[in-house]
Amino acid sequence: MKLRKKIFLLALAPLVLVLCMIAVMVNHQSVELARAQREVIEPTYLASKEGELRSYLMLAQHAIAPLYDSGRMDEAAKAEAKAILSRMDYGEDGYFFVYDLQGILLVHPRTPERVGTNRLDYRDINGFPHVQHLIAHGREGGGFVRYVIEKPSTGKPALKLTYVTPLPKWGWLLCTGIYLEDVEYVLAGVDTQVTGNNRDTMRWIGSIAFLGIGVIIFSGLMLNIRERQAGQEEERNRVAIELHDSICQQLLSLRYQVEAMGIRLLEIPAQFAVAENPFKRISAELANILGEVRETGRGLHPMILKDLGLPAALRQLAQDMENETTSIRFRNRGLVGGLPGDTSFVFYRLAQECLSNVKRHSQASRAAVRLAGDRKSVRLIVWDNGIGFDPNCMTAGHSRGAGLHNMKARVEEAGGRLTITSMPGNTKVTATIPRLFCNASSPSMTSDLPIRTLARTVQFGL
Asked: How far apart are alpha carbons 403 and 379 in whole angstroms?
């Protein structure tokens, strides 16, 4: 596995692991929070319901107190008390019912057909003997019993909290109950809210994970592209230096020797003077080859860009690209000095590509290169008055468009924007890079060359 992939995995794996751990911890904390909320809410609700039931039962006791406290034990007094309790209710499912100590149902306004039956062995839906527990709590002085029974208004099973208090003179157990659906509803709402919050949190974590992974992948791709470009430029630099230091020197030396031989031929007899012309042609050819090699070296890696900066490099480029048919002018204004190497190199390559296209394709008589800068951005404009071209041809299938397509990608990679307008007599290529991206560019092109490079640049015009 390549080192680049290992670094990528080492950056990605910890991120995924940390996000998974965060997700597990958040889920655990949410479950614990829901449990803690239930533990707080449920006793509070039950306490309020218990207080409510005591109040209702106290009202019922006050309603029959004149009969019960009179000391009467006859059936007429008890029948009148039963009638009073049967008429009392609260809400849709709030009523009072009475058992005796043997489990016989004495009062029940919702199911009068069951009155007089022994319900001692009656059990709720879950098999719980709630009547026996009501009698047991009544014998002990009163208490609360919870059980599941059919709710009269809906006909569906529901959890019911019943309070029982004894009427010992008559041997009665006075009861009333409240269905706890609202408590279950509140607790279910808490669970639903916690589940929803948990789900939203997981979505946020997933989004952050997706974004983080995307940033890492994008950064890896950009790093890979920059490494390749840096490798290419390094190789170009090496080849350019090799051409400059070796081949150009040898060609220049050979040219000097040929010229020296031509001078020496002036001293020989006239019958050998005919040999002077081949030496002149060889010297001219060597001069052309030397110029082409220098041009190739300059194309591979513009040393002047490092040594003297972008304005000087563009001025030299305009002079070198100018010929008998096309005049090229360069102008610069504003804050254009001290640009980072990456930004300078992008502008230089764009100008080089555009001027090359002008020479090869445009049939222009005039061209101009303008470099302008302010506190917000730096802009390069290359203009010519040639025949123009279709800007939509910027694809790999066109020799002219391929270079501009690559330059457009490089300008956008540097954080800038490339626009092209073209018509016969007016073609303009404009690259604008915000100053923010110029300052953020890594100075990969600004590494120092040996001092002797500048001397050779001046000496050989590179």
From this structure: 19
Domains of the chain, by residue range, sit at: 8-179, 305-462
CB 102 within 8 A of CB 118: yes
Q: What angle do CA 208, 209, 214 make, to 5 degrees?
A: 95
For 324-379, give the DSSP string. Answer: SS-EEEEEEEES-SS--HHHHHHHHHHHHHHHHHIIIII--SEEEEEEEE-SSEEE
Q: How far apart are CA 149 and CA 97, in angstroms?
A: 15
| Contact yes or no for 359/397 (Cβ under 8 A) | no
> In the chain, what is the straight-line distance between the N-terminal and C-terminal CA atoms, in Å?
42
With the CA atoms of 41, 45, 47 and 50 taken in that order, what torsion angle do they form, in degrees rounded to the nearest 10? -160
Can you name the CATH fold of 8-179?
Beta-Lactamase (3.30.450)
Strands of the sheet with 377-384, listed across from one edge: 327-334, 366-373, 377-384, 426-434, 417-423
Assess whether the region 8-179 and the region 305-462 belong to the same CATH fold: no
> Contact, 187 vs 195, CB < 8 A?
no
CATH classification of 305-462 is 3.40.50.720, yes or no?
no
- Cα 267 to Cα 260, 261, 273, 284, 302: the distances in Å are 12, 10, 9, 21, 43
Residues with Cβ < 8 Å from 113, sequence gap 6 or more?
none
Half-sphere exposure of 256 (CA within 13 A, CB side): 6
Q: Which two tokens stand for residue 270?
A: 């006239």
The string of pLDDT tens digits covering residues 145-203 is: 999 998 888 888 888 999 999 999 999 999 999 888 766 666 777 777 777 777 777 77
Put simply, whether the predicted model's pTM sits higher than 0.85 gets the answer no
Name residue 370's beta-bridge partners: 331, 381
Element (H, E) at 304: helix 303-308
